[in-house]
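thoughts on my protein:
***
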Amino acid sequence: MNAGEFVGALRALRLWSGLSYRELAAKAQALGASLPPSTITSMLGRNTLPRAPLIATFVLSCGLDQDTADRWTAVRNSIAVGSEHPVLRSPEQLEPPSDSGTEQTPANPQVTRRRQLRLMVLGLAAFGLVISVAASLLFKPTGSQHEGAVAEPQLPSGLLAEGWFLIQPAHIPDHGFCIGEGRERNRHTDRPLAVQRSCAAIVPATYLAATSIGGVYEIRWHHPVEGVGCLTVDEALTEDETLVAPAECTGAAHQRYQLEPTQIPSSTGYRIRPTHSGLCLGILGGLADVDNGAEVAQTACTGALDQVFLMRPTNRSRLHPGQPGGREPHE
């Protein structure tokens, strides 16, 4: 196990807990510790090891006990000092054979430590398997797809494969709305924003680009005039009702989104969560906002359908990320 795999296990643990970043922060506060949403974003948004004290707080906040938290911390520390974990074996295989007729020599402290690390890694690996199985059950699509529907490209883990998509607000599936370019309805500015509008001849084309972090994507707009831009939470704010607009792709956390399968109202339903805040994208006016041109905004997660989006694959083979004439996205 390396640092990236360990952080991946932390992300899986957070999904298993079902808690938002704010809820985890509240759990940590109740434990007498500090774990702000911004710290969680930093922990889970990179492939380097978090500081050791944060691991125990995070694991406890996810609902596990102190013994389990200690094991996670121990594995983190062993990775930090560059320990090479051998092939995992059963606990029985880790104990030397007993020989009642032979005097036992004192245990070598280094050998003992390596055996303890193996056991801790084995425990962590076993727990990770439990998380993986639970996640597969939670995210397994239910029901049959409509006959003739385009098959949704999915990875074995249940994550979406990158590609061209129509993103439809789930609370008004009969309105024929998709997320595309619009303007503020109050005319406060005249800049391009993400809004719900008619799917017919939707502009720009939307490309879901996978990052190196599983389940985290950039939402790239390919505009016929402006080129390529990434949907970006305004000024990296972590406040409710912050609008979302295209900007030059830089790979920043407020341009990356974790897609969480909801299975509601269908297997194509996803929550879209900015990685810098842990909040949810939704329609600015909530469930009642069914108007053409309603803005997309970052808001506190409620579980309501105005914060769920249907990811519909489209055929856009004539375009691809970084096409000539557009702004090159960050790689």
The domain at 163-313 is CATH 2.80.10.50 (Trefoil (Acidic Fibroblast Growth Factor, subunit A)). Helices lie at 3-17, 21-30, 37-44, 52-61, 66-80, 91-94, 109-139. Residues 109-139 form the longest helix (31 residues). The chain has two domains: 3-96+109-139, 163-313.
